[in-house]
From TrEMBL:
InterPro entries: Acyl_CoA_acyltransferase, GNAT_N_AcTrfase_prd
Protein name: GNAT family N-acetyltransferase
EC number: 2.3.1.-
GO molecular-function terms, A-Z: acyltransferase activity
Keyword set, alphabetical order: Acyltransferase, Transferase
Organism in which the protein naturally occurs: Arthrobacter horti
Gene3D superfamilies for this protein: 3.40.630.30
Amino acid sequence: MTAQSLRAAQADAASAAARSGVVVRELEDMRTLTAVQRLYETVWNTGPTGTPVTADFLRALAKSGNPVFGAFDGQDLVGACFGFCSPPATGNVHSHIAGVLRSAQGRSIGLALKLQQRAWAVEAGLRTMTWTFDPLIRRNAVFNLVKLGAEPVEYLNDFYGQMDDDVNRDDPSDRLLVRWYLDRPLPQRSMPGSGGPASGEQPTTAHRVAVPEDIEAMRLQDPVRAAAWRLELRRELVGRMADGARVAGFDRAGHYLLEP
């Protein structure tokens, strides 16, 4: 990575934090790392037995050089993220969990956290960042593919097995693995409000694969229908990616765009 890439990454991170009205900093002490654990339990609505991560594990990660970042609105922790490095030859860091309190959502705090992770990774000489997300959650597809420009590389069936939280419970934990090239500038486009899904082909070479507008609400209101969406999306993406298709983007109507 060049000095110019580092300056650009640091400037992007600082700008995003300022726009979100937060300060993003590394966390190392047990008090703040325990606050991260509690924040994740709140975001995913879990109890101590189903916590996404424990404070002592975060402490070990931070001590080993894998930073835990917290976003603060004044004295209040409103978001956090962490990851861990892959083997050195890969030049990759895997971003594992990022979460923002519901009361603080809509301010692009998740973007500020991710861009701080990127700035750290660029300074460390890393080239890429990977992470997984639930491909049925439309806002996450918009964030990862449109706002950040990450590239899907693999569909993972029930990757984490059964998860004990109110977001994922009773639904297979399918995930889409994405890779983000850290030296590339952020996309210079925004995502307008999404409409409902529509089926059919685009008038281009891309094939559109729809996702529902709000799968999380559907899981609560109509779990049978939500399960059908899961299986249909899995069938489409797994089959087409296995045949060599590439997920080229995500459109404003709520579709993955697949190109041969």
